[in-house]
Design brief:
The protein is globular. It contains three helices and seven strands; from the N terminus they run αααβββββββ. About 25% of the residues lie in helices and about 35% in strands. Strands 1, 2, 3, 4, 5, 6 and 7 form a seven-stranded antiparallel sheet that branches. The protein has a domain at about 50-170. It is an alpha+beta fold.
């Protein structure tokens, strides 16, 4: 992490006096502005995949509940998030270049919280690093830029993913939690 270090995050949590808060908040806001400047440049780069652009357009995922992080067969990582202001669930699918790096104990235990919450993240492009991919639809290999996504979670875990493709899906609810509610038409009943 270059901008949102655990030390900077902890400084925001430990303030007692108004002057300390203003100073810590000013450092945080400078980091936010610097990071968003970098993200804007990344978004405008010509060879950035659409999924990375879509992720940047989502804005901050701060305080989203992390429902699941999973590794299906193959070199992929799935992250399922639920944000308070979204009707559905967000599914991020990373096509990774190597195994995820999981670091435990990044925050002191007294700052852990459950459920697991997305505190902050940093997305960056690895300059000059490419991953060779053979598409199902084309014979020649293609060199794709490699990105790094570092994510700090509220249970003191930092997840670092190196990837070349990112799919962002917003899953809208098909059924609400009320069993009698129907979706988009007449209710259908079945009997034996």
């Amino acid at each position: 992490m270059r901008y949102f270090t655990p030390e900077l995050y902890l400084a925001m949590q430990a303030v007692e006096a108004p002057a300390e808060f203003r100073a810590a908040n000013a450092r945080w806001e400078r980091a936010v502005q610097q990071y968003y400047t970098d993200l804007a440049g990344l978004k405008d780069a010509k060879d950035v995949p659409d999924g990375v652009r879509r992720f940047i357009e989502l804005g901050s995922l701060h305080d989203a509940e992390v429902r699941e992080i999973g590794v299906p067969p193959g070199i992929r990582v799935l992250v399922m998030l639920k944000e308070e202001n979204r009707a559905g669930t967000l599914l991020l699918t990373y096509s990774t270049v190597d195994k995820p790096v999981v670091t435990f104990g990044v925050l002191p235990r007294e700052h852990y919280s459950v459920p697991r919450i997305w505190l902050y993240d940093e997305l960056e492009r690895e300059k000059g690093v490419y991953h060779r991919v053979r598409s199902r639809y084309s014979a020649p290999e293609e060199a794709r830029p490699v990105f790094r996504h570092s994510i700090l979670l509220s249970d003191g875990v930092e997840l670092c993913l190196r990837f070349y493709a990112l799919q962002v899906l917003e899953l809208r609810p098909l059924l609400d939690n009320e069993p009698s509610a129907s979706y988009g038409g007449d209710a259908v009943s079945a009997s034996a």
